[in-house]
């Protein structure tokens, strides 16, 4: 167990380190002069020199990289060029919204996907199965921003049940929750399409196994067998995809926040790009990539928690 | 208690896998079912708990405690499974959920069907483990299937089957996957449990020796037909049907007993290749001209009944 | 499942054919110039002259959708083509050399999976400025690890075959074996993967253009059309419908085709979902 964990942790740290190099290189080294990127082609040499001085860009690349990583490890992500405040502060301010959206989106995704996937498996080959698979096939092809627009058209423009976008802040929890309904649904509908498929095929695989027959012979109800016996055994592929979907979730939130004008990290990312605020962009890209890497790492660990056989094997 | 009338199971292709079986099991009765692979033993058993695989068509009547239950009436079957009849299968490793501690597996029907609380179910599971002879029962409760030996797993499955005190236990080749010593103990356990609990036992096996030690009555199947039946000792010592005679002749001596049955001359034909009359025609040494085309009648024999145009103690 | 298989491919191929036809046709003919502004005719309803009507500047919708199809297919072809070529070459190299080279290539491609395509493209757009070429580069880059993995897995199997041993024994070079024996035999999984990645590329291009990081005005793009339509949602909701349907048609088409091809070639082939 500990050897296994140590290996995984080492791999995780190495990946994060490599990701930081890629991000730093793309944002700082490849484009040439970041001051030029920030200030634009029509800037004067003096202005650029002044900015380079302020951002410490004249130091050697390696030193700048080390300073960035060192700062990041202490929670210091630098000063935002356009907002004039610490990037960490900007992130802290917007994090709750993004995290709420991600959590609600993922929760709804998993619920929808499990219900659809298990239902389809239970009705294998019958009408319900076909309907769910058709939905899933469509869900994979629909871009999340278009689905969002359609939801807005229907529920905000036509029916006027929910706000079309924007965020009223947390002081009014009901209004805040209402603002998150459509984004959550859009995110979950798209994400659950893939997960429902995986759940269905994983469940079908498990349903062939003998212990399911034992459970049936024990007189348990089909629903009980599905949720308590089939699902746990189908969890490994499902968790794998959930982990992979963190990538989709992260990019999905970035897109969704921009569709619904939600002031979260994704919106901040685009504002910073528009403002050519490279320091902030770099911090955010690193953060998003780190989330994806962490999710994949946690999935690796989760396998061991799911399956006692692995626990024994790795002890 | 459980009775089958004219039970027929057809495959999707319309081939008959069980043909018009009549069978009744009385309370406390121990019945053996023997026959080569593919003779329809498992399907016969599955039809008695309403679990014939999807895609197969079941006709005829199944009576459980006097109540007729349609093959697809899942709700009615669910009322009876575990309580009226329970079943254990051949492969004890795969038959247990690998992610659940075996104690919880046995506790599950106790909690769901009998409404016991966690502590009571655990207590009862421990009793069942002890009753089925699982050593160090208390410690085993918390273990996972992969931590147990094959024989212990089969005992866990028996404990699970006994949980709701069924009137009938169907054991489909419960010892085939186990080695000889362990198999012997499991069959003895089944007999003891059946006697102690006044529980009927349907024991399906390839192993004539095991069946003769375990059961009082016997049914011999071939090609989906019940070809002979009667008291186990009498049928096995004085078989009337040529197929039963063949089975016995092909039996290895008890000295170096193998668990797989050596075959009678020829091989069991595929379902679609079975003759329409007597299923055994073509492999039978005593075959008459009418055997291939005409289904033999069930006739009384000195030891019970047989379905044959020419039953008797002839040579094979 | 097997019974559905041909249907899968048929529907997929039909959808792909429609989109491809529109894309190719747009290179030589569209009903109107796609950027042709005709303010007098803005928000025109569908008619014989404008089959799907016009937008807020009176531009013909059908022409824009066709031109956008051309753009979308172009991006996908070039980006997946580049990513597939480099990735396949690396995968072949990894399988042929083994040892630390294989290890290095595979570790690097693991790294690629830390970046969802969209995030990587956003990073490039931020560093180099938004444009369709950045989108192409981003998609190409993200495709490299995917193809490297698929190729290596398939190639490693072929390397174990007897006729490869024979070729080696006959003194054929590693490169020649990779070219003459391995490559032709791994074409199936690579083509399947390419079809699926096509669908992903279309989605990513649309998303980036929607977000303003891809096609720049007046370049036609389904994603950009949707971004414009969003600001007119109360005024002209119909504008938000057609570009989305086009995206779905294209993505669904390639997705179904890829799924179907995979089912008949190798059901266990790794599948990456759209980013
Ligand atoms: N799900 C099914 N679909 C189609 N045919 C089946 C199915 N299950 C069983 N059969 C066929 O029905 C016949 C009887 O099968 P059954 O399993 O009852 O035999 P058995 O006597 O239990 O054999 P064994 O000793 O091998 O367990 C066989 O020919 C088998 O091929
Ligand atoms: S009916 Fe005929 S073929 Fe069948 S067992 Fe009797 S004698 Fe043999
Ligand atoms: Mg059987």
Automatic annotation (TrEMBL), chain A:
CDD domains: TM_PBP2 (cd06261). It is a multi-pass membrane protein. InterPro entries: BPD_transp_1_N, MetI-like, MetI-like_sf. SUPFAM superfamilies: MetI-like. One of its GO terms (cellular component) is plasma membrane. Keywords: Cell membrane, Membrane, Transmembrane, Transmembrane helix, Transport. Signal peptide: none annotated. One of its GO terms (molecular function) is dipeptide transmembrane transporter activity. It is found in: Cell membrane. The chain crosses the membrane at residues 12-30, 97-118, 130-156, 176-198, 234-261, 281-306. Its main location: membrane. Residues 95-299 form the ABC transmembrane type-1 domain. Pfam families: BPD_transp_1, BPD_transp_1_N. Belongs to the binding-protein-dependent transport system permease family. This is Peptide/nickel transport system permease protein. The lineage of its organism: Bacteria, Pseudomonadati, Pseudomonadota, Alphaproteobacteria, Rhodobacterales.
TrEMBL record, chain B:
The keyword Transport applies. Residues 2-248 form the ABC transporter domain. It is found in: Cell inner membrane. Transmembrane segments: none annotated. PANTHER family: DIPEPTIDE TRANSPORT ATP-BINDING PROTEIN DPPD, OLIGOPEPTIDE TRANSPORT ATP-BINDING PROTEIN APPD. Belongs to the ABC transporter superfamily. This is Peptide/nickel transport system ATP-binding protein. It comes from Sedimentitalea nanhaiensis.
UniProtKB/TrEMBL annotation, chain C:
Its main location: membrane. The keyword Signal does not apply. InterPro entries: BP-dependent_transpt_permease (IPR050366), MetI-like (IPR000515), MetI-like_sf (IPR035906). Residues 69-258 form the ABC transmembrane type-1 domain. The keyword Manganese does not apply. Keywords: Cell membrane, Membrane, Transmembrane, Transmembrane helix, Transport. It holds the Pfam family BPD_transp_1. PROSITE patterns: ABC_TM1. One of its GO terms (biological process) is transmembrane transport. GO terms for cellular component: plasma membrane. It is found in: Cell membrane. SUPFAM superfamilies: MetI-like. The chain crosses the membrane at residues 7-29, 73-96, 108-128, 134-151, 186-212, 232-258. It is a multi-pass membrane protein. Belongs to the binding-protein-dependent transport system permease family. This is Peptide/nickel transport system permease protein.
């Amino acid at each position: 167990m500990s050897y296994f964990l140590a290996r995984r942790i080492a791999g995780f740290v190495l990946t994060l380190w490599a990701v930081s190099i890629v991000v730093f290189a793309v944002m700082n080294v490849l484009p040439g002069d970041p001051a030029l990127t920030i200030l634009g082609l029509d800037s004067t040499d003096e202005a650029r020199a002044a900015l380079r001085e302020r951002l410490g860009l004249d130091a050697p690349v390696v030193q700048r990289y080390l300073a960035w990583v060192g700062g990041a490890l202490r929670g210091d992500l630098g000063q935002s060029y356009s907002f004039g405040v610490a990037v960490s502060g900007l992130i802290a301010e917007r994090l709750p919204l993004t995290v709420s959206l991600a959590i609600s989106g993922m929760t709804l995704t998993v619920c929808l996907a499990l219900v659809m996937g298990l239902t389809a498996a239970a009705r294998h080959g019958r009408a319900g199965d076909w309907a769910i698979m058709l939905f899933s096939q469509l869900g994979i092809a629909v871009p999340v921003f278009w689905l969002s627009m359609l939801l807005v058209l229907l529920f905000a423009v036509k029916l006027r049940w929910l706000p079309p976008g924007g965020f009223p802040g947390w002081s009014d929890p009901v209004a805040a929750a209402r603002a998150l309904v459509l984004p959550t649904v859009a995110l979950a509908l798209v994400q659950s399409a893939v997960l429902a498929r995986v759940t269905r095929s994983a469940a079908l695989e498990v349903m062939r196994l003998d212990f399911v027959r034992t459970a049936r012979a024990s007189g348990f109800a089909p629903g009980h067998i599905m949720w308590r016996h089939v699902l746990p055994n189908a969890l490994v592929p499902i968790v794998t995809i959930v982990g992979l979907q963190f990538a989709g979730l992260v990019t999905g939130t970035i897109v969704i926040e921009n569709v619904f004008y939600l002031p979260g990290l994704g919106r901040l990312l685009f504002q910073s790009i528009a403002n050519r605020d490279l320091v902030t962009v770099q911090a955010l890209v690193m953060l998003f990539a780190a989330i994806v890497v962490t999710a994949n790492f946690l999935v690796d660990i989760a396998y061991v928690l799911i399956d006692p056989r692995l626990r024994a094997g790795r002890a | 208690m459980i009775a089958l009338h004219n039970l027929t199971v057809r495959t999707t292709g319309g081939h008959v896998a069980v043909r018009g079986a009549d069978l009744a099991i009385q309370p406390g009765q121990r019945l053996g079912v023997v026959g080569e692979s593919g003779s329809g033993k498992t399907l016969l058993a599955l039809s008695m708990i309403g679990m014939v695989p999807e895609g197969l068509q079941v006709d005829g009547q199944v009576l459980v405690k006097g109540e007729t239950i349609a093959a697809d009436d899942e709700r009615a079957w669910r009322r009876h499974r575990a309580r009226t009849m329970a079943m254990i299968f051949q492969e004890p490793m795969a038959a247990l959920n690998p992610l659940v501690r075996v104690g919880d597996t046995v506790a599950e029907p106790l909690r769901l069907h009998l409404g016991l609380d966690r502590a009571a179910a655990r207590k009862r599971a421990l009793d069942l483990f002890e009753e089925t002879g699982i050593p160090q029962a208390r410690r085993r409760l918390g273990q996972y299937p992969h931590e147990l030996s094959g024989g212990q797993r089969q005992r866990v499955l028996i404990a699970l089957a006994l949980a709701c005190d069924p009137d009938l236990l169907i054991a489909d080749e419960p010892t085939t996957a186990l080695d000889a010593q362990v198999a012997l103990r499991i069959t003895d356990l089944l007999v003891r449990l059946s006697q102690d609990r006044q529980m009927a036992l349907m024991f399906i096996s390839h192993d004539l020796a095991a069946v003769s030690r375990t059961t009082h009555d016997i049914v011999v199947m071939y090609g989906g037909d019940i070809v002979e039946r009667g008291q186990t000792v009498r049928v096995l010592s004085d078989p009337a049907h040529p197929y039963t005679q063949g089975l016995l002749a092909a039996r290895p001596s008890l000295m170096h007993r193998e668990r797989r049955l050596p075959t009678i001359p020829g091989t069991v034909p595929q379902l679609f290749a079975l003759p329409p009359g007597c299923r055994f025609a073509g492999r039978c040494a005593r075959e008459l001209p009418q055997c291939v085309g005409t289904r033999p009648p069930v006739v009384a024999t000195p030891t019970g009944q047989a379905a044959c145009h020419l039953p008797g103690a002839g040579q094979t | 499942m097997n019974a559905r298989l041909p249907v899968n491919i048929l529907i997929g191929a039909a959808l792909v054919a429609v989109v491809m036809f529109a894309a190719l046709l747009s290179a030589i003919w569209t009903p109107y110039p796609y950027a042709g502004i005709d303010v007098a005719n803005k928000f025109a309803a569908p008619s014989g002259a404008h089959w799907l009507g016009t937008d807020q500047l009176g531009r013909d919708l059908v022409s824009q959708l066709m031109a956008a199809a051309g753009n979308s297919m172009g991006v996908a072809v070039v980006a997946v083509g580049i990513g597939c070529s480099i990735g396949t070459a690396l995968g072949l190299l990894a399988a042929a050399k083994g040892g630390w080279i294989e290890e290095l290539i595979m570790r690097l491609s693991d790294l690629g999976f830390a970046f969802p395509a969209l995030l990587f493209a956003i990073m490039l757009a931020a560093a180099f400025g938004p444009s369709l070429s950045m989108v192409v580069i981003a998609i190409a880059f993200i495709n490299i690890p995917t193809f490297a993995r698929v190729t290596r897995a398939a190639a490693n199997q072929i390397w174990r075959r007897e006729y490869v041993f024979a070729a080696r024994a006959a003194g054929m070079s590693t490169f020649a074996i990779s070219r003459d024996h391995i490559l032709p035999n791994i074409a199936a999984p690579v083509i399947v993967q390419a079809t699926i990645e096509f669908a992903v590329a279309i989605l990513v291009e649309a998303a980036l253009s929607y977000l303003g990081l891809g096609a720049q005005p007046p370049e036609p793009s389904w994603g950009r059309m949707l971004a414009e339509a969003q600001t007119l949602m109360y005024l002209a909701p119909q504008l938000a419908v057609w570009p989305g349907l086009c995206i779905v048609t294209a993505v669904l088409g390639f997705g179904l085709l890829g799924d179907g091809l995979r089912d008949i070639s190798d059901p266990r082939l790794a599948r990456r979902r759209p980013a």
